[in-house]
Specification:
The complex is a heterodimer of chains A (about 280) and B (about 250). Chain A is built from 11 helices and 2 strands; from the N terminus they run ααααββααααααα. With about 280 residues, chain A is mainly alpha-helical. Chain A has a single domain, classed as Orthogonal Bundle (ABC transporter involved in vitamin B12 uptake, BtuC), CATH 1.10.3470. By secondary structure, chain B is of the alpha/beta class. A 6-stranded mixed sheet of chain B has the order 6-7-8-3-9-10, with helices on both faces. In chain B, strands 2-1-4-5 form a 4-stranded antiparallel sheet, with helices on one face. At the A-B interface, helix 6 and helix 7 of A face helix 2 and helix 3 of B. Chain A: It is a multi-pass membrane protein. Chain A: One of its GO terms (cellular component) is plasma membrane.
Chain lengths: ~280, ~250
């Protein structure tokens, strides 16, 4: 039963990894652009949830939607004022721009919120739930389930809707998309909004179950890279599988080897994967 | 009256001159051909009209309105469509999704439905393969899809860049039958072609481009009889002329 608990707990955390990683893979796959600030988007989502709960109150639906909305807007603004311009520059400018952005957001959060760990007060999702003998915090179960649903929704949006079709068209051939009457800059702005919004709501979900400080962005950013590499660049469904697997591996190695080793195992697997299959576990060669 | 007027268009890519000085006119209901060898400026001319590249000089006018240098997405909305060289289909999406993207500028659902039906009637093959990914189609089917996609939004002027490139002769012949049929139905066409005989078969008027300039122009049937055209393009060229026409690559 303890093992089942470890497995389910790992999968539930992995589902949240999947959600924020699908945002990273969207930008990576669509624009061939690496966003080093993605983990900071997750961190900001957590603080937006905190600010909403402390400031105006409200349940998970309120602060979840607030975090998604705030980060969507931030994503669009970052695209309009930073990304759009560095896209015309050399590769190194693109890399440094989001690396710089990550530092800016992280240290702004240190300055604003201090380096202390915080957690969501008066959590509506307290208590534990009994899933046939497995006892799990309600917050984890809700957060993980919502994350899976949202990741699937993003996949649905991309593959089954006109908006998704436009996103993929701009990703594949911006010039041809322009000839259809699509404005690539608007579609790319939307992609940044969706990407950051996914990270933001994932942050809000994480905030219900775990305490955090401004430096979590770095950890989650790294995890997102591992998930995207496992799942294949640009594949939301791949991110979902990979997120669940990474969550599972982390939980299992934390359980058997000790909590301090859980990240070591994940990153060791990451390096091994890049060595053996540089295109990702599920990516095409 | 809808018409396209291009005056003294020039385009340069850095130090390279893609188009030096081109003037042309397309009237409603006409089929106009842009002829010339590889690198004579046909593609650049069409791309500049469609807004994919910025002209460095000259004017483009559509139904009396200047559209010079406007972005491609804005020009499409005025009723000019370009089916670019090499088709540029969205290979990772289905036939139906490609057609749907072609109708982005068409907000009216019943009209969109009518266009779907019209395109599927024109190319029954596309209807059969509507759920198939565009990247898995044969060359002929890709050309059908490119043409269908360009037709989807009821454009007033359709520009086709080398529609016959890379296709088997039988497929090319079927394509030109379709274009002739569309012309009879009133479609205005501006057609860039390397294979002159084909283009002259359906064109009303033609421009022969050489190193980014209009070398020759006239009604299609006159050009077909023109000595210079016959010499350069119908395989009876002199050595000197052959060398010249081959030296024009970008």
């Amino acid at each position: 039963m303890v093992i089942m608990q470890v497995i389910v707990g790992g999968l539930l955390l992995g589902a949240i990894y999947a959600l924020f990683s699908s945002g990273l893979t969207l930008i990576w796959g669509m624009m061939n652009f690496i966003n080093f600030a993605h983990g900071e988007f997750v961190m900001l989502g957590m603080y937006v949830a905190l600010l909403v709960v402390v400031g105006i109150g409200g349940g998970p639906a309120v602060f979840g939607i607030a975090a998604a909305g705030a980060l969507f807007a931030l994503g669009v603004v970052i695209y309009a004022f930073l990304i759009r311009h560095v896209l015309r520059g050399p590769m190194i400018a693109q890399i440094l721009s989001t690396f710089g952005l990550a530092l800016l957001l992280r240290y702004a959060a240190f300055w604003f919120f201090s380096a202390n760990f915080v957690s969501l007060p008066g959590n509506a999702l307290s208590g534990t739930i009994d899933l046939g003998g497995i006892f799990l915090p309600v917050a984890q179960v809700v957060a993980g389930s919502v994350a899976i649903v949202l990741t699937l929704l993003l996949q649905f949006l991309l593959t089954r809707t006109l908006i998704g079709s436009m996103l993929l068209a701009v990703a594949e051939d911006p010039d041809a998309a322009t000839l259809m009457g699509i404005r690539p800059d608007r579609i790319q702005a939307l992609a940044w909004g969706l990407s950051a919004g996914a990270a933001g709501i994932a942050g809000a979900l994480l905030a219900t179950a775990y305490p955090w400080s401004p430096s979590v962005g770095e950890t989650f950013g790294l995890i997102a890279f591992v998930v995207v590499a496992f799942g294949g660049f640009g594949s939301v469904l791949g991110s979902l599988y990979a997120g669940l697997i990474i969550g599972l591996i982390q939980a299992a190695s934390g359980f058997w080897l000790g909590v301090i080793y859980k990240d070591v195992v994940v990153y060791a697997l990451f390096v091994a994967l890049l060595w053996l299959r540089p295109q990702g576990l599920m990516g095409k060669a | 009256m809808t018409e396209l007027k291009v005056e003294h268009l020039s385009v340069s890519y850095g130090d390279l001159v893609g188009v030096a000085d081109i003037s042309l006119k397309v009237r409603a209901g006409q089929v106009v051909a842009l002829l010339g060898s590889n690198g004579s400026g046909k593609t650049t001319t069409l791309n500049a009209i469609a807004g994919l590249v910025q002209p460095s000089g000259g004017r483009v006018e559509w139904s009396g309105e200047p559209i010079t240098g406007k972005p491609a997405y804005a020009i499409v909305r005025k009723g000019l469509a370009l089916s670019p060289e090499g088709w540029r289909l969205f290979a990772g999406q289905t036939v139906e999704q490609n057609l749907r993207l072609g109708a982005i500028t068409l907000a009216d659902q019943p009209r969109r439905q009518a266009m779907f039906e019209r395109v599927y009637a024109l190319f029954p093959r596309l209807a059969e393969r509507r759920r198939q990914l565009a990247g898995t189609l044969s060359g002929g089917e890709r050309q059908m899809l490119a043409l269908g996609r360009a037709l989807m939004s009821e454009r007033k002027l359709l520009m086709l860049d080398e529609p016959s490139l890379g296709l088997a002769p039988a497929v090319v012949s079927a394509l030109y039958d379709t274009l002739a049929e569309l012309h009879r139905q009133g479609l205005t066409l501006l057609l860039a072609e390397q294979s002159i005989l084909l283009a002259l078969r359906i064109a009303d008027y033609a421009y022969v481009l050489q190193t980014g300039r209009v070398a020759l122009e006239g009604p299609a049937d006159e050009l077909e009889r023109n000595e210079q055209v016959r010499e350069i393009y119908l395989g009876v060229a002199t050595r000197e002329q052959q060398r010249r026409s081959m030296g024009t690559g970008r």
